[in-house]
């Protein structure tokens, strides 16, 4: 169970935020905020300190969680995310349908993947990174296994689908168990070589799965939950965040 310091705001008459650091005492005086930890006095708003988000010698991460729910009765497909601030942040986006405890789609965008345009940060939202999604073009059938030779060579009963298969794709059996990653293949012998030894039985159906972040399902749902995370030590200013989305048409 995590322990936090909870802040109260007189302006909103509520508790707007949580802090990871745990002071022994804190309070404001002469327009500055102070705290005491283990007998040491600290000032929290010292603009001359270039290292931000460091409390009592421990470096922390800042995180903001929010819900985008415009047109709540529509299933929305998220396409882009925009950040107004002095820097881009690491982002995780989750899409929910009727069960808000388990997302159906989820993707990430790193701060390095944002593009700065006219002082604002923009990034297209990558596709579904959750495992088990076989509805997108990232999943494709290969065929039935004839047998395994040399522990890593999967011999198939049909021609290898060259238009679909690529080195680096993951190989699964019909029970959705990962067998390995493709390192090479031989079209003449109908053999796929993977990076992990297996003892799979003949007659098992084999399918391939490409990188879901690139070729998986789009991020969609009634609600779109977004986590914004800052792992840096420099000053961070966040003014607004928005998502570009459109109504899904199944």
What does this structure look like?
- With 250 residues, the chain is mostly beta strands.
- It folds into three domains: 5-60, no CATH class; 63-131 and 216-247, Sandwich (Jelly Rolls), CATH 2.60.120; 139-210, Beta Barrel (Thrombin, subunit H).
- Helix content is 2%, strand content 50%.
- Strands 14-15-18-17-16-19 form a six-stranded antiparallel beta barrel. Strands 9, 12, 13, 20 and 22 form a five-stranded antiparallel beta sheet that branches. Strands 8-21-10-11 form a four-stranded antiparallel beta sheet, with no helix packed on it.
- The longest helix has 4 residues, at 212-215.
- The two termini are 41 Å apart.
Short description:
The chain has 250 residues and is mainly β. Helices cover 2% and strands 50% of the residues.
Topology (elements, then pairings):
Blueprint: E1 5-9, E2 14-19, E3 25-29, E4 32-37, E5 40-43, E6 54-55, E7 58-59, E8 62-68, E9 76-85, E10 90-96, E11 105-109, E12 115-117, E13 120-124, E14 139-149, E15 153-156, E16 170-173, E17 178-186, E18 191-194, E19 205-209, H1 212-215, E20 220-221, E21 223-230, E22 238-247
Antiparallel strand pairs: 1-2, 3-4, 4-5, 6-7, 8-21, 9-13, 9-20, 9-22, 10-11, 10-21, 12-13, 14-15, 14-19, 15-18, 16-17, 16-19, 17-18
**CATH fold annotation of the largest domain:** Jelly Rolls
**Name of the top-level CATH class of the largest domain:** Mainly Beta
Number of helices: 1
Distance between the termini: 41 Å
> How many strands, what sense, and barrel or not for the largest sheet?
6 strands, antiparallel, barrel
- How much beta, percentage-wise? over 45%
Strand order of the largest sheet: 14-15-18-17-16-19
Instruction: Examine the secondary-structure arrangement and name the CATH architecture of the largest domain.
Output: Sandwich
Radius of gyration: 25 Å
